[in-house]
Amino acid sequence: MTLTPEQQAEIDELRATPRPTLRAVSEGMEGHLYKANPVLDHGFVRVIDYMGDDAAICQAARVSYGRGTKAVSNDEGLIRYLMRHWHSTPFEMCEVKLHVKLPVFVARQWIRHRTANVNEYSARYSILDREFYIPEPEKLAAQSVTNNQGRGEALGPEEGARVLEWLKADAARAYDHYEAMIGQDGQQGLARELARMNLPANIYTQWYWKVDLHNLFHFLRLRADAHAQYEIRVYAEEICRLVKDWVPHAYAAFEDYRLGGATLSGKALECLRRMLAGEAVTQETSGMSKGEWREFQAVLG
Amino acid sequence: MTLTPEQQAEIDELRATPRPTLRAVSEGMEGHLYKANPVLDHGFVRVIDYMGDDAAICQAARVSYGRGTKAVSNDEGLIRYLMRHWHSTPFEMCEVKLHVKLPVFVARQWIRHRTANVNEYSARYSILDREFYIPEPEKLAAQSVTNNQGRGEALGPEEGARVLEWLKADAARAYDHYEAMIGQDGQQGLARELARMNLPANIYTQWYWKVDLHNLFHFLRLRADAHAQYEIRVYAEEICRLVKDWVPHAYAAFEDYRLGGATLSGKALECLRRMLAGEAVTQETSGMSKGEWREFQAVLG
Amino acid sequence: MTLTPEQQAEIDELRATPRPTLRAVSEGMEGHLYKANPVLDHGFVRVIDYMGDDAAICQAARVSYGRGTKAVSNDEGLIRYLMRHWHSTPFEMCEVKLHVKLPVFVARQWIRHRTANVNEYSARYSILDREFYIPEPEKLAAQSVTNNQGRGEALGPEEGARVLEWLKADAARAYDHYEAMIGQDGQQGLARELARMNLPANIYTQWYWKVDLHNLFHFLRLRADAHAQYEIRVYAEEICRLVKDWVPHAYAAFEDYRLGGATLSGKALECLRRMLAGEAVTQETSGMSKGEWREFQAVLG
Amino acid sequence: MTLTPEQQAEIDELRATPRPTLRAVSEGMEGHLYKANPVLDHGFVRVIDYMGDDAAICQAARVSYGRGTKAVSNDEGLIRYLMRHWHSTPFEMCEVKLHVKLPVFVARQWIRHRTANVNEYSARYSILDREFYIPEPEKLAAQSVTNNQGRGEALGPEEGARVLEWLKADAARAYDHYEAMIGQDGQQGLARELARMNLPANIYTQWYWKVDLHNLFHFLRLRADAHAQYEIRVYAEEICRLVKDWVPHAYAAFEDYRLGGATLSGKALECLRRMLAGEAVTQETSGMSKGEWREFQAVLG
């Protein structure tokens, strides 16, 4: 991703003029405001605004009358307690607004998270740029042989090169025709709302996306997961980095209890108890299906 | 849209075996269940399930203990009262589940209505069919000259033919390469989650969409409107036809108060009062901008 | 709870007249329709309507074109897979509408679950009945000494009797005055929307509550939990019984993975691995706080 | 409402220490931060935090890359356009967090607006204060004779005095017994989660309430309306005053198009056209019911 000089100048200007506020301020997040963090070949994530910090989570949990006087160590403990016991409403008291540029097929997954506010660039109203996601060769992976919904080994160099050639050529041709359709030189020019249908799903779009911290954590748990598609996972990972600087205690609790944690079924817990009592439990004696047992073994490392 | 013999047989079988239920039954909706109503060239809308009827709306409004004994004419009046005064919760007590097949660029607009439940065909997991929306020639319209977000006159025959040729050829080539990328004959085969990015936005997808009647009316008000894009409006109009048979009183109230109604601003109401008192109000003396005045005139016919 | 003869007659009539439908039918749920299941001293839960069954969950997961032909054993496995991997959208495809009568202080907790549709009896419009929740003596528990948000031992008989006397007398007096305020015999009569403010939180209200199965499971996981307040837990348990008959496979999966399961943090999983490798881990060497360690021990039984 | 010296000191301290931020700042809203605005006899509304300003609405509408360079007059026009055409997503890009103290019967109405985040003071965990809403004598109104859901004339002095006496005495007695039940002096002490059931609906509770501007406008349209109950309307009106200082252009558009506007049905528009053409339309010839006609006449002034 390269910013135009105008874009960079705009960011510099926005960052040059701090103003006084009485609101809660997160120093870590102030450092990120407006900056474009590159993701994939043309995408980015940038923070446009935020509300609240770690202390705001605790303040809401206490519905205290003021900002509270507890030491940071107490705040950290309270945040861990809230996360552990699925008390979600205090985390909803923080909010963040991001500007994201991303391929359309990633946007289609992302938008399935409904509890957020979105303003997307309108291809009915405006003309899309000639920017397509073309994967790096080592990211061109084969269909997984064990998982219907995933990818396996990287393609060999010859097959990879063939795929890249098609992706580039088809995108270029589709965009050439898109431009030719909407052009008004010597013709009427097709409506933009129609012409866009010729564009492939790797074209970039952009949106403002605003979400509260609880729902953002839910998004991150699913999309920063190893099973998420690589092209959305890199966005989730970039956002994780930003959230860590915004609300460090909340993020640490999220990392321990959600990203690094696991949910075990009643059957799995029963097996665990037998194993801790010294019994050698096998899939056959576990009461679990093969798939469950495999996942259970993975959790136990 | 043509159904395969297997699909038609499945529908016939589902419709052949009524079962007894004690729930509220809408005769009008039973007649539609499972049938595929064609929309655009390959799309459809079909009703998979529904909950409630006109009486259920009234019953919820009364939170009566049983089904109530009021005559139908009273139900009709109550429903009109509820609609007029924006009492939305009784309408939320009805629910419908639709199976919709639609082009991806229409799906992208549709999904912006967040208060619904969705299960979409997964192109990570499965292979998409070779089906693309190719507009009928008379629907190929030029960009509107007065409205940045709309379409105007139909394209002339030559320009239209050129556009159609591009749409067809680009879709065919993109799909050929999609197939070639995922094929596993003599190669590893690209992961489906990656290959899909080569497909244009006029390819068809499908989903189950479940929504309550209040939120459905909100969707229909926006999407059955004359300013909505034609390709989503035809879906909304088809759904209107189904809803009319499902909850006739609620639909009639919706038609009068929402589809056929208009919201006037305080300024517009003030102008109206002056006009009814005999004054000849003009845009200049109205206090409205030119755009508002034009829309106000349109409302007054 | 005692039904009036009119109410019972109405239920009998509603249950006497099955009608044919082409929709999915759950035999287990048909047996419950309209019947009032008593909860607490004057409350109840009754099923007014439902949409979908176990097969509908699978059908949505497959977005198959028809009802699908997989054997029941496959459906069961698919449902367990969906629950285990937090695939929530197929469960959202089922919906249920309940009529619930419950004390106001229970309603206040219940309503915090926002993803549902509600029509409550209006005390602005109508007059509330003289019905109050008066706990059974053995349910009158002391404040917990270990948990700020819970109850401990039952009160001794003398203290319990004193409490009961106050609850009864205060409710009776409040209702007498409520009636006296709104009465129009020889006076104007206070507006009902004002008079209601004199009534205590153990008065009964009622509502229609409609929710999809995914969000219902979320409600039940929190409210059928041992830490939930007894007075809402008994409602959740009654609903569990109904859901078990409605969607037996989904309920069994919910029971194993949610009600009977537990979420372990990254720290807890690390401890487990050390314990399974033979190490004697203590709270001091676990890296967990005392509270976390106590909860971890409870999970391991 | 009187603040304790500690509360006032806390507010003063919070307001004494501005910090630099790069985020959008609303000068008008900064002036309100943390201050308690009295409502009713013991209630208040205070702003804890906010996100965005008028410019942020426009920025989202344009999904512009930077803050945009359009003059304020353009922003105002754009905001009016967005409001007029029900483009709600740009307004969702602003967010506000309020701390509200309010009687329980008001809270019960308020919470029905589901699209918001809430943290309420917990009466399971904590002890409620002895603070009850006791209406001013002139607010003690009789049940409306024309509207089942509203109030009419003020009560006469004697009847009013009788009502006030009951409200005060019953609240005092209920609180005395609440305190006596939970006391642990010489007895076990009833659990707080049970004792609260003895408290009437005019006791005060408090919560943090966070909502986006679009949903806040929806709340204000319904609750600042003349038909809303007085006791919630005064909160809505206080919030209107705050929003006006926060986002002046958006509030002005809201005032014109929503608060001061009206929605007319298709039938009503048809009548208007006939009236403007000189016809003397009556209820009988209007096609409207008596209720609709009366409301139509009210709109026309």
Automatic annotation (TrEMBL), chains A, B, C, D:
* EC number(s) recorded for this UniProt protein: 2.1.1.148
Q: Which HAMAP family does this chain map to?
A: ThyX
**Catalysis performed (reactions):** dUMP + (6R)-5,10-methylene-5,6,7,8-tetrahydrofolate + NADPH + H(+) = dTMP + (6S)-5,6,7,8-tetrahydrofolate + NADP(+)
Q: Which residues bind FAD?
A: T89, R112, H113, R114, E120, D212, L213, H214, H218
Reported function = Catalyzes the reductive methylation of 2'-deoxyuridine-5'-monophosphate (dUMP) to 2'-deoxythymidine-5'-monophosphate (dTMP) while utilizing 5,10-methylenetetrahydrofolate (mTHF) as the methyl donor, and NADPH and FADH(2) as the reductant.
Pfam families of this UniProt entry?
A: Thy1
Q: What is the originating organism of this protein? A: Oceanicola granulosus (strain ATCC BAA-861 / DSM 15982 / KCTC 12143 / HTCC2516)
CDD domains noted in UniProt: ThyX (cd20175)
Which cofactor does the UniProt annotation name?
Answer: FAD
Can you cite a GO biological process for this protein? dTTP biosynthetic process
Q: Which UniProt keywords apply?
A: FAD, Flavoprotein, Methyltransferase, NADP, Nucleotide biosynthesis, Transferase
Q: What is this protein called?
A: Flavin-dependent thymidylate synthase
* Annotated metabolic or biological route of this protein: Pyrimidine metabolism; dTTP biosynthesis
Give the family per the record.
Answer: Belongs to the thymidylate synthase ThyX family.
Active site per UniProt: R223
Q: How does it assemble?
A: Homotetramer.
What SUPFAM superfamilies is this protein classified in?
Thymidylate synthase-complementing protein Thy1
Binding locations of dUMP: Q109, W110, I111, R112, E120, Y121, S122, A123, R124, R196, R223
Q: What is the lineage of its organism?
A: Bacteria, Pseudomonadati, Pseudomonadota, Alphaproteobacteria, Rhodobacterales
**Cross-referenced InterPro entries:** Thymidylate_synthase_ThyX (IPR003669), Thymidylate_synthase_ThyX_sf (IPR036098)
Q: How is the cofactor bound?
A: Binds 4 FAD per tetramer. Each FAD binding site is formed by three monomers.
Protein's gene: thyX
Q: Does the keyword Cytoplasm apply?
A: no
